[in-house]
Amino acid sequence: MAYFLTALVLLPALAAAFRNWRHGLFACVVVAILQDPLRKLTPGEPVYYILLTGVVLGAAFLAAWGRVPLDPNRIAGWRRHLSVPFNLFILLLAAQAANAYLQFGSPILVGIGLLSYLAPLPALVLGYQYAKRGGIRGIERWLWFYLVVVFLALISVYLEYAGFNSPVFGEVGPGIAIYDRNLGLYIEANCGLFRASEVAAWHAGTAACLLFLVGTERRLTIPRILIAFLLLGFLVGIGLLTGRRKMLVEVSIFLSVYFFLMAMFRKGGHKLAIVAVLFGVSSYIAAVGLLEPDPAEKRYHTRYQQQESYLSYVERGKTVIEDIPERLAGLGIRPVEWAVSQFGLLGAGLGTASQGAQHFGGGAEVFGGAGEGGLGKITMELGVPGLLLVAWLAVAMTRHIWRVLTFVSARSARLARLSYGFFALLVANGAVFSVATQVFGDVFVLLVLGLTLGFLLAMPVLAKGEASGVRRGESGVEDRTLGLGRMV
Length: 488
What we know:
two-stranded antiparallel ribbon; 18 helices; 4 strands
């Protein structure tokens, strides 16, 4: 029965994607939400269910092949500012894939590693082409569709907390209970339809950020503000029920970066920008302190003291951790040192620290827990050269995005606000990834981040077309002064 339901969901989604690749981006959202409850209903809860949304995006990519340019070098400014570090990064991935296969002989392990790094790429390209052709209205349609679908799915988190029993509620596997040492009790990790509380919390935080973004993109009115605050309160409340406090920090970093950019690109706003930066740095430090050890260490016990009051979740969200300096070192520097000490400067190979590798002879049980933080994961899988190359690519991307923001801010206030929000969301996720990689093993999470970056990189084309009155997506524009190169 479960396989029949899976086919009933997947086949129409694939048909929609093959018929129109843009519809495939919407179908991905539906499949991403339904694949987890379907997995819970399937005997053995097979891990491959997390790939279903990737299959739909792959169908959309194939449908777009030959109809729109899918070469990243066709993205405005990519060839000039990003092609060298990106191409070197791809070569390094290939080398480390060969390294991992020769050492461990597991093509699945290598595939998981490749997926963790390359999954955002097709979404980035499709997101860029979708934005060029659909313009700001097309972007808004996708954002609102995601918000509505995820909002409905997040209601299940509250239903689980309220005591409703369903075979599609709860964690995949035995489940986890989070021990809060300050409260002295276990907090149940509610996740509703989602496969894990970590995933539910990420969607709650991301939905809150995107809701703020689309809510402030147009002229504000009192009714809009009231509705936005009610919905934001709901999303934050749901996020607290997951027991994952990183959701709060993600939203805090998003807001700090957003207001920093708003201040930086407006005259006389530098003092506010400094305050926003300080708030963002504080949020990042708090993120490190609020992180818990690997959830695998806290599987359900037969007996534990559990607090069911909602106040316990609120108190957990307000908890101040005293050993932040120790955790900064434990999640940042020490995993890098450990990976180099155990596997040398070249690392252990692709996939060894990726989320999901534990099902195929990898993960922390075999290779240690250095992959819990992003720096440790990169060092362990790609070695020190990979860590340096990723840093180069990140700096090059940030400098290019800054040019994009400068270009767009001078031409369209509405597009500029969207651009600030997309960049802020990427920075917030980058900060969380640096100290906690678990949720970034989810394929749909990677696809959303890829689409977000694609939307952002398309903003100069939309801004130039909006200013000149030409039809979007058809004419090339050029601005050598800002260094963006040829817009295609």
